[in-house]
Design goal:
single chain, 283 residues, alpha+beta, Aminopeptidase, 13-stranded mixed β-sheet, 8 helices, 37% helix
């Protein structure tokens, strides 16, 4: 197998976009990251790793990594080991450090198995996730309230909530990065709040990573004192419908499989499971 690495996100997309879009919802993370890099690459401090794996001239896999974050993997092959070994050799040869991997279970598990063979010890399992897709919101009885954009006056409260989201999801981020993320979401009109009938903000959700036909919903968070009232359902359902009305063919989101409550909420709204993703961290 042959690995082609790209310096330009646009060149990477030219090589792999059609391949990834065969399962666009499943690959929304990798596609969304690549599209974002194509817009911000000239301003990035750390060069991303962008690679396509070919077998006999046919694309069989792809990978994206934005240091210091995890390597995102994908392959349609039932046996991912040859594709993973080719990528492993390319990364080792170029002296890239891979702190972790995330991808469909088959690809991520293949990488973890290879890492264990090469290092003589087991990697640290991360979150077991599931990617969902929605094309039509189901009719639901929602609690009174309305969806609105977050604004500058919400910043301090939203930083606390974004921090709470990352703590609940066991995600590793510094406070400065969380503040930057929150500010960016507010400035770019990507962070939405559910405001109760009493005028109290009770849940947040964000839109992110648009692809050619879809867009992701993320940062869904309700503080503990407001949970169990249907606010997250109302926020996500209303935002998802708004995104579909804006012209997107589908919405996607990732869930933590260890949280059956959130998985049930999304299924009630109309989200259907696409695939399981596995995450691993390496010393």
């Amino acid at each position: 197998m042959n690995v082609k690495a790209f310096k330009s996100p646009n060149d990477f997309l030219d090589a792999v976009q059609d391949y990834l879009e065969v399962q666009e919802a499943l690959n929304s993370l990798m596609l969304g990251l690549a599209f974002r890099l194509s817009q911000s690459a000239p301003r990035r401090r750390n060069r991303p790793f962008l690679a396509v794996v070919e077998d006999g001239g046919e694309v069989v896999g792809a990978a994206v990594m934005t240091p210091p974050r995890k390597l995102i993997l994908y392959s349609h092959l039932a046996d991912c080991q040859p594709m993973v070994r080719a990528l492993w050799s390319a990364l080792q040869g170029s002296r890239w450090t891979v702190p972790g991997v995330l991808g469909p279970a088959e690809a991520a598990d293949a990488w973890a198995k290879l890492w264990e063979m090469e290092n003589g010890r087991s990697p640290q399992p991360g979150m077991r996730q599931r990617v969902f897709e929605l094309r039509q919101v189901r009719p639901l009885a929602l609690p009174p309230g309305h969806l609105r954009l977050a604004n500058a006056d919400d910043f301090a409260q939203m930083v606390t909530w974004v921090k709470g989201f990352h703590e609940d999801a066991h995600l590793r981020e510094e406070l400065d990065a969380l503040e930057l993320l929150t500010r960016s979401k507010i400035v770019n009109d990507e962070l939405f709040l559910w405001e109760s009938e009493a005028g109290e903000v009770v849940t947040m959700a964000a839109k992110t990573r648009p692809t050619r036909h879809g867009i992701a919903v993320s940062l869904v968070y309700t503080p503990a004192e407001h949970r169990g009232c249907g606010y997250a359902t109302a926020c996500v359902a209303t935002l998802s419908q708004q995104l579909l009305d804006d012209g997107y063919q589908f919405c996607t989101l990732f869930t933590d499989l260890s949280n059956p409550v959130s998985n049930h909420i999304y299924e009630k709204i109309g989200y259907t499971a696409v695939a399981d993703f596995h995450e691993y961290y390496f010393d």
